[in-house]
Each structure stands twice: as structure tokens, then as C-alpha cells.
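Quick check before the chapter quiz. The format below is the same one you will see on the exam, so make sure you can read both the input and the output lines.
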Amino acid sequence: MLTRHGWGALVLAIATAVIGRMFGVLELFVLGAGVAALVAATVVWVHSRRMNLSVSRVVVPSTLQVGDTGRVELRLTNLGRATTSPLVLWEPVGGMGGATLRLAPLRPNETAAANYRLPANRRGTIVFGPLTVERRDPFGLCTQRRLMAGTHEAVVLPAHSALALPVGNGAQGPLGDYLRMRALGRSGSEFHSLRDYIEGDDLRRINWRASARSEVLKVREVEPDGLRRCAVALDTTAHEYSPEGFERAVSAAASAIASAAASGLLIRLLIGSRTDQRNTSTSAALHQLADCAVDDDGVLPSFLAPAGDGLGLTIVVTGSVQAAIVAAARRQLAPNDVLIVVVCTTRSPSTRSTFVIDATEDGSFATAWMAVNGTQNATSARQAAS
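Here is the expected output.
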């Protein structure tokens, strides 16, 4: 393929040859013929040397979240028998234009690396490639382009951070106090210690082997069941959010997942009515959140699930406390679960039976979360996701 300079040289050659022929000026005719021959020679030179390159692509770091800046590393190896000419690389990056790189000549079997920055400005799947490799002749008159390396995908996770959850009986804050009172009202299952029998104790808790070695009856003291499970439900009803509000909601849901994982809880993720991942991993849940979107199907998720051991949290992320998904959660809430509502559009006060966390402004979610839990950040998001 001729470049702009190549087409210009060809037009000049034809015009010069025609003028020289018309006016009988041999020098102009020879000059035009020479330029035309040069253009033809460059075309033959470029297309007679086929590019034979091996290309690999790596995204560093492998896991990105909104706000990070990564890089894409390209490694090219010359598999041909001759040294390549200088190469120009162009790679399209989905939704963000493309990156142009220049590479020096490569000797046979030589490998060179090139990289470009990848700003993670929005969540979701980014598609790279295919890579276009362009080679030009020394005069810049002709170019050869070849598509290589196919495509590659990278997922940008929602912005999130792992916040402390009230795990254990020493938890603080309103939510921790409430969970502790709920836990103390349960019989528990984990052995803690032995103590003397007190009139009124359940006879089933008497340790007869220890009592035989003592002068008094001994009773097993058990640790009350603490927080074991966490279900995070993201409302995808379109009219509940502004575009910014839905992004805050996705980030809040991702933070709740990271927090539950950092606390060692069993995780369940519900996104609208179409996604229900039970006993899922942090990575799988965050990847689902990376590509989620609002919809208007009008179908609410089902919160019903087999009863689990210990207490559980059900965290509903929506626009307001009046959302239909909140009413559905209250109706279907398991006896051992505590409801938390994260509002991302309309501020709402806490109700008697519901903890409400305000996420209506950027940065307000973490502050409101810590106020309810009475804690500081537990770990960074990167540690939680790894």
C-alpha cells in the first residue's frame, strides 16, 4: 500500500514524464521515469519481505479496579531469517481509542518489548487488539500492514475497599451490639469451657465424664454462634438510580463482598433477578459486578435460601429504603439474618428493624459503614481480592 508520500511521488513522476514528453525535454522524462521506478521498487521491496513475528501480550497488574493505572506489555520476536525494518505498532483499546508504538529493527530470533499505559477509568471488560504491525520502506513511500496477536480481554473491577465487619462477640457499634444480643439468645455450638452446674441449666449440657472426676456436676459452656454468612443483593431497577448513583451502588456492593470475604464469611451475591451466586468466591463475585447494568424487567430477586448455621447479614444495595426490593427482603428474611440497606439515591433514616447506610454521595459509604460498625478499615481492597 502506498503512503501519502508514495502517492505524491507517483503523481509527480507521471506529471513530469508527461510534460517532458510533450515539450521534448528528455531530462524531465527521465526524471519522471526514475521516480516511477523508485516507487515500483519500494512496492516490490516491501511485499517481498514478509513479516514473521511472534507477539504476546500481558496486562500488569492482572487485576485492576476503577482508579488504577496499569500497563499492557507487548513482546515481539522476529521469527524470520532477515532483520526487520523499523516497525510501527498500533493497537485499538476498546472504548479508549488506541496506542501507537515504534519499534527498532529486530535481528533474527531477537525479542523486543514495548508497553503502554492503561488507565482504568470505568469498570467492565476491555478488549485489546488485534495488533496492527506496519513496516515501511526506507523512503517512506510504501507500507505493509499485518494484523497479529488476535484480541485480549481484561476486566476492570468496580472501585471498592474492604471494611471491617462485626465478626465475633467483641464487635462494637450499633450493628455489633445488635448481633451480639442476637447471638447470646442462641444456644451456640462451639465448646468454650466447663463450669459448675447451676440449678436450671439444661441437663443435656452436663459433661458426665468431667462430672465423674469432680465432686459437683460440670456443664459445657459453649460460645454463642456469631456471624457466619453474608448475602449481598444489588438492585438493578433503572428508575431507582441516576447514572452516578448506580456506579456508587455497584461500588458499595463490591465493598460489601470484599468486606465479607476479609471476615471469612460465606458469600452469596444477587444481582437483580438474573444472578444468584451462592457460596461464591470474591473474584467471581467482583467479576459479575464489573459487567452488570440496570434493567427494567420488574422482577425482584428471591432471598429464600436453606437456613444456614449462625447469624447472617443480608445487605441490600438500592436507591432508597422505599424500594420494592427492600420490602421483598423484609418478607423473605430468614429468622437468623439481619437486614442492612445501603441507599445510593435518597437519604433515609434507620427504621426500627433495619440498619440504613448512606451512600448518596461519593465517599459517604465508608463513613456511614464505620459509624454503624464502630470500626476502621480492615484491609485494602487489593489484599481482599488477592
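If your answer matched, good. Residues 52 and 80 are 5 Å apart (CA to CA).
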